[in-house]
Structures are given as C-alpha cells and as structure tokens.
C-alpha cells in the first residue's frame, strides 16, 4: 500500500482515535491513513500518479508520464531546475523582433562549469568515436578532480582533455597524446602537464603503453590486411623484448614495425603515410627502422608469407 | 655500494657497503648550483645597469642580469635586494661568486650587507656503467617512478625524504636535482641498487 512512512513533522492531521499513530501515506489515492484503525484522515493530498493513461502498444518514443530530462544524479548533484524555452508563435516576440523573455540561462550555477566540461568531453569523444563507457569514466574523473579543487587554476578544457586521455588508458585502449590533441584545442604540453597533475591529485597511476595497443587502430586506418597487422604486432613485440630500441617511444617502434611489415607484404605503405596516421615524424620512423632492420629475419612471425623477401627490404 | 666522487671537490663520500662485492666508483659531476642571498638594501637597477660592467637590464620584468667571469656565474638582481645566483659548479664557488657580486655592488655605492645566503638547488649528472631497462624499472618502482615515453624519454624518480628528483635515461645517464650537494649524493646512492636490478647485461 503505502510507500513512505515518514515522521509527520507538522501535527496538523492525526487520527482522532490514535493521536500517536504515524499516518501512512497512500500515494495512489492521495490519502493519509491511520495504520491502527484504517481511518482515512487526510483526503485528496497531492496525487503523484501519472496524469494520463499510456498504452504499451503506443510505440511513441516519448513517455508522456515522464517530465523533464533524464537525471544525471551521479554527476550533477540534482538537476531539478527549469529552463524557459525559446518560444514559438508570434506572441513571444517583441516589436523589434527580439524574443521576449530572453533569459533562459540561469540554472545550477554551481555546476555550470562542470556541465560545460561534460559537454566538451562528449564533443571530443564524439570526434574520435569513443564508446560511452570511456566518456562516463572521463566524466567521473573530471568530477573527482573538479571537487578536489587542487587543479582549479588550470583551464577546464585542459583538465577535460587530460581526463579523456587517462580514461582511455584505464580502459585499456590508450590514445596517443597527439590523437587527443587533434580533437582538443589544448596543446600537447598543457595536456601532458595536466595529466601528471591529475595522477598526483587522484593518487592513481596508469599502466605503461605497449606497442600492441595501437596496432589495430593504425593498421585499420592504413587499410592493411590482418596478416600484415599480426606481423607488425609480432615484430614490435619482439623488438621490445630483444631491447633493440631502447629509449624509443612505443609509438615510434609500432610505426617502424608497421613499415617493415607492410614493405614485406603486397600492401606497401610509405613512411610518410604511416607517419601521418601515427603522428610520428618520418625521420623518427627511419631511425627506429634502422635499429630493427639488422634483426629483421628474427622479428617476423614464422608463418608470414613474404611478398618481398627479407633481404630485399628497403634499407634506409 | 658505489663510492661516489663529487667532481669539483676533492672529497669522496665513502658509504658503508651494503653488498660488499661491487665497489664501483661513480663520478657525480655537479653542473649547476643555484643560490639566493639578500643585500638588505634597496638597489637602484638603473644605476647598476648604467654603471655596472657585464650587465643586462630587463626593464619589462624589472631585473638586472650580471655575469661574472671568474667563478662563471649569472646573477639575477632584483631591486628589493634579493639576488639569485646560478651557474656555479660547487657550493663553495657559489658562495665566492655571491660575495664577489656583493662586493661589486658595494663598489657601485650601495650599502650592501651580505645576509641569508642559501643554496637552493643543485643539479648533478651521473653516468652508470650500464644501460637501463626503463619499463622494467618503472614497474618495480611504482609510486616513485613515472615514465611517459610520449612526453619525455626519461623516468622521473622522486625521493620525497630528500626532496630530490632523478631523471634516469636508458643510456645509463642520470640527472639529479636536489636542495644541496649531500642530498644529491645520497640520492644517487639510494637509486643505485634499483637501477642495478634493471640494468641491461652486455652480451
């Protein structure tokens, strides 16, 4: 029957027979009922049931018994504010053509910056097609950082970009700083600084990036077949295991591995193309390639079909 | 445990060896010592800029740079009387240079009192005889070490107790910054066993 049994703070209505009894609310009928004797004490209290009937076969996307946008309680601390809409029809416009009642912006001022940041995060994530779980994680991280206030002086966009980077890392699908840079207006330097500050503020750490994390993305962007991708992954992993490329960024090693694998297969790609996709300069690919070239026969997987044999690989 | 020789000073810090087998002597080369001191009097920067030798006046910022030749030192002079001295290669040299600087300011006519001399930062470089595997090192030293190959090719290792930061490169070269020379030497000694674990064996 009743949903809530709350303490009746205002002793306006009590059951005449049982003045101590706590009245129980029936929200459906709008009644206040005494639990002892069942007497209906209050009548026509506000009914919170739905205002009109809805039928399940209606197939309407909107649910007419719901009002307002879906709440985001985890993030926005309660979103129960009202915005005045833009106004349709002739009556809502002034004589000069300006709309009457322009002010529709003042809402939840405490979290406005945060909501702006969430919007920015969603926009950025959209540009590189990140799934919703990463966006949610980013939002959570941003909220934590924002509430801590230790990075208050930094631009919100910078913190948002850094949170996006960290979220991608934490989900196991890291994006390079350059990729995040491409969808954000903040420089790589600033994102890097914010990244370190956030890790310190939240006292977390992230795993190191490996060459394999980027292989599938880079290879798909270059339209390389699966064998080439697998070969490149193998080459890069072997190169790191044998420590042929000390001190080189894993991205550069991955790019060089892709170059080697593609040059050995039918689908050849130039250094410039790979550098474009990976965000690595082609001289860097050349440097890393020179380091892995001597051991090329060992790096290829055993079952690789060579279109160009190993000794005919380009030497730079 | 390595015996660290600090070049520039004729003393070597001998440490109690933890594992007595390797007694490697590591040369720690101090490249920069930064110190600050006060002259306790207001300095007229314009006068220094006009009459002083080897000065650069940065009017937009409000400071004068004075470069000394004998201990090779660059000093940043503010009109409040606070002076920052960089470029010395040892603590003693920093003090000589600072005093020399105060003397030259005195000759220009200011009532200089040499107070509050403090060495603020010491930068030193050390070379390990082996190369280092950075990913392995980072994994073993999780909270203190941070490695971001995309941002910087070195591992940044912070020792909170000494307030020292070490940058460890894969070639085996290590850059240390700390509040004084002793902290720097201690930092190198502390890091040596960890770095030794993750070294690259020469085949």
From TrEMBL, chain A:
It is found in: Chromosome; Nucleus. Gene3D superfamilies: 2.20.25.10, Cyclin-like. It is an enzyme of class 2 (transferase). It catalyses: L-lysyl-[protein] + acetyl-CoA = N(6)-acetyl-L-lysyl-[protein] + CoA + H(+). It comes from the Eukaryota. Keywords: Acyltransferase, Chromosome, DNA-binding, Metal-binding, Nucleus, Repeat, Transcription, Transcription regulation, Transferase, Zinc, Zinc-finger. Its EC number is 2.3.1.48. Its main location: nucleus. Pfam families: TFIIB, Zn_Ribbon_TF. Residues 11-42 form the TFIIB-type domain. Coiled coil: none annotated. Belongs to the TFIIB family. General transcription factor that plays a role in transcription initiation by RNA polymerase II (Pol II). Involved in the pre-initiation complex (PIC) formation and Pol II recruitment at promoter DNA. Together with the TATA box-bound TBP forms the core initiation complex and provides a bridge between TBP and the Pol II-TFIIF complex. Released from the PIC early following the onset of transcription during the initiation and elongation transition and reassociates with TBP during the next transcription cycle. Associates with chromatin to core promoter-specific regions. This is Transcription initiation factor IIB. The gene is GTF2B.
TrEMBL record, chain B:
The keyword Iron-sulfur does not apply. It comes from the Eukaryota. The keyword Oxidoreductase does not apply. Keywords: DNA-binding, Nucleus, Transcription, Transcription regulation. Its main location: nucleus. It is found in: Nucleus. SUPFAM superfamilies: TATA-box binding protein-like. Gene3D superfamilies: TATA-Binding Protein (3.30.310.10). InterPro entries: TBP (IPR000814), TBP-like (IPR015445), TBP_dom_sf (IPR012295). Binds TFIIA and TFIIB. Belongs to the TBP family. Part of a specialized transcription system that mediates the transcription of most ribosomal proteins through the 5'-TCT-3' motif which is a core promoter element at these genes. Seems to also mediate the transcription of NF1. Does not bind the TATA box. This is TATA box-binding protein-like 1. It comes from Galeopterus variegatus (Malayan flying lemur).
């Amino acid at each position: 029957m009743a949903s809530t049994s709350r303490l009746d703070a205002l002793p306006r209505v009590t059951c005449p027979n049982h003045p101590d009894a706590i009245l129980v609310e029936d929200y459906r009928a709008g009644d206040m009922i005494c639990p002892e004797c069942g007497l209906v004490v209050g009548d026509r209290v506000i009914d919170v049931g739905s205002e009109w009937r809805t039928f399940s076969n209606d197939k309407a996307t909107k649910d007419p018994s719901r009002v307002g946008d879906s709440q985001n309680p985890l993030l926005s601390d309660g979103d129960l504010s009202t915005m005045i809409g833009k106004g349709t029809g002739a009556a809502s416009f002034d004589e000069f053509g300006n709309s009457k009642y322009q002010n529709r912006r003042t809402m939840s001022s405490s979290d406005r910056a945060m909501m702006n940041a969430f919007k920015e995060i969603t926009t950025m994530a959209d540009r590189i097609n990140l799934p919703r779980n990463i966006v949610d994680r980013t939002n959570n991280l941003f909220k934590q950082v924002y509430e801590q206030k230790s990075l208050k002086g930094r631009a919100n966009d910078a913190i948002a970009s850094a949170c996006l980077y960290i979220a991608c890392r934490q989900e196991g699908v890291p994006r390079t700083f350059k990729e995040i840079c491409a969808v954000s207006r903040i420089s790589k330097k600033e994102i890097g600084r914010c990244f370190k500050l956030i890790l310190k503020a939240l006292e977390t750490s992230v795993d190191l990036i490996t060459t394999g994390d980027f292989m599938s993305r880079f290879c798909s962007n270059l339209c390389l077949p699966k064998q080439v991708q697998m070969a490149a992954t193998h080459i890069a992993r072997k190169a790191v295991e044998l420590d042929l490329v000390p001190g080189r960024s894993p991205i550069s090693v991955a790019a060089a591995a892709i170059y080697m694998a593609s040059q050995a297969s039918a689908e050849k790609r130039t250094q410039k193309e790979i550098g474009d996709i990976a965000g690595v300069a082609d001289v860097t690919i050349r440097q890393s390639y020179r380091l892995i070239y001597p051991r090329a026969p060992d790096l290829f997987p055993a079952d690789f079909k060579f279109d160009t044999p190993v000794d005919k690989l380009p030497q730079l | 445990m390595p015996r660290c020789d600090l070049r520039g000073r004729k003393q070597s810090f001998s440490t109690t060896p933890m594992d007595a087998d390797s007694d490697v002597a590591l040369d720690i080369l101090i490249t920069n010592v930064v110190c600050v001191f006060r002259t306790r009097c207001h300095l007229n920067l314009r006068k220094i800029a006009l009459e002083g030798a080897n000065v650069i006046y940065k009017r937009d910022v409000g400071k004068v740079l004075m470069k000394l030749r004998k201990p090779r030192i660059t000093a940043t002079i503010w009109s409040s009387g606070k002076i920052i001295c960089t470029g010395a290669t040892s603590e003693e040299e920093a003090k000589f240079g600072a005093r020399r600087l105060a003397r030259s300011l005195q000759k220009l006519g200011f009532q200089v009192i040499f107070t509050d001399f403090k060495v603020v930062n010491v930068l030193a470089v050390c070379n390990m005889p082996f190369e280092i595997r950075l990913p392995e090192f980072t994994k073993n030293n999780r909270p203190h070490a941070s490695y971001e190959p995309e941002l910087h090719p070195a591992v940044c290792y912070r020792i909170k107790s000494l307030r020292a930061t070490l940058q460890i490169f894969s070639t085996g070269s290590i850059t240390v910054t700390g509040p004084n020379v002793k902290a720097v030497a201690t930092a190198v000694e502390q890091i040596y066993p960890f770095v030794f674990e993750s070294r690259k064996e020469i085949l």
